[in-house]
Amino acid sequence: MPLPSFHLCQSVRAREKPRLYQLQKRNELLPYAFFTRCARTFSVLLLLLPAARPAVLPRGRFALKIRDDSQSASAPATAVAAPATAITIPDIDHPFIAPGPDDQRGPCPAMNVLANHGYISRNGIVTFEEVVNGMMEGFNMEVHFAAGLAALNFVSRGNVFANKISIGGESPLVPPSPGNIDGNTTFGIAKHGRFEGDASISRADAFVGNNRAFQQPVFNLNLLELGRLGDNGVDGNNTVVNVPTLIAMEKRLFATDQASNPKFEFAARRMFAAYGQAAFLMTVFANGTTNQTTLPILDSIFRNETFPPNWYRAAVPVTGATNAKVSGAILAGIPEHVPGRNNDQGVFVADPLPPPPFNSSLPCAGYFDQAGNTPATLVNTTGIFKQNVDFLVKILFAGASANPGCTQLQEPFGPAGV
Ligand code: HEM
């Protein structure tokens, strides 16, 4: 018999509709109070992520509800309170199948793993709802956190009108946005410059190498730090990821790429994302039974792009606050890193601070910087297109405003067609 959560997600998938606005109809923004509760937990916050919430937000496990107008308003809420136990992933219905030549894969190990196991479309072309459900089902990501991550990528590299994004490069299955308002191609998440950036854990910088596929030499830089600083565990000494390992990794990735990439950029949005992604190693990829991320787990997810053997997803949903605890520790552990970029002489120069209130924290600066790298043309859309844009923009602000002082919504104001 399928597990309740699997059944839930399947039922949501079956009802999936191609327009985000249908999701919006049944959702409202997360009340500010929720975020302030999270915010009080941590002195340094990295919470550009949470998002829209279902009209009914039950305790325990829940899934995004998507209903269209044909459904009765009195339809019962789909909610199952599951016990806080880890569930083995993948289940029998999600075997690993290596991608075919036409399947899209890209720089996100989590997206690649989910697609290789069919938790999201194996061809790598996904909808907003599908990718949120996939993150919840495969990695037990909390719904607001998952929706925030998806929103960030949809506004920067997806087709918001068609509700499609490629988890790799451009694809004929993702048409350009109506009116070609962002050029005549929707590139996909692998395209450098808006969200994809430098100093990645397992990919080369776009200017000097392959920023899309796994690069063993880059990944080895992290393994050196794990071998030096990792905790001891069942898989051997110095094999368990801890915060000092993540700090050392981020220092080394920055130093290596800053020296080797003349066009090295580590703007606020990238710094914020890079630390958040490093934190995922400890929060999302940990085996839910041990709460440890070990060398074989990293190897399986990053290099083989498959769930590790005997792996259990987190016992309780991974929230933005959970991740912020780790990414905040990375930020605090590298005070010498500031947002900036190399100049023509290869010297790293700090970027100017954003205007208030966006200078109030790194997450807020990252939020502003990301909006400045999301096409302004999205704002002048109409109809369903505009509703979808607004829905996603509000999701992003809901996350950013979790950070004290980050009180102003910023609409996209970046260039199109890049
Ligand atoms: C379960 C949720 C997710 C997890 C655990 C996750 C994890 C990660 C990790 C660890 C990296 C760093 C890879 C590296 O530096 O080599 C990464 C990068 C990336 N992710 Fe994800 N991710 C998630 C969701 C998403 C979603 C929903 C999208 C878009 C649809 C996405 C798009 C990206 C992109 C574009 C990068 C490349 C960033 C860069 O290195 O320049 N991720 N992700």
UniProtKB/TrEMBL annotation:
Keywords: Heme, Iron, Metal-binding, Oxidoreductase, Peroxidase. The keyword Transmembrane does not apply. Belongs to the chloroperoxidase family. It comes from the Eukaryota. Its cofactor is heme b. Pfam families: Peroxidase_2 (PF01328). It comes from Mycena venus. This is Cloroperoxidase. The keyword RNA-binding does not apply. GO terms for molecular function: metal ion binding; peroxidase activity. InterPro entries: Chloroperoxidase, Chloroperoxidase-like_sf. Gene3D superfamilies: Chloroperoxidase-like. Residues 92-328 form the Heme haloperoxidase family profile domain.
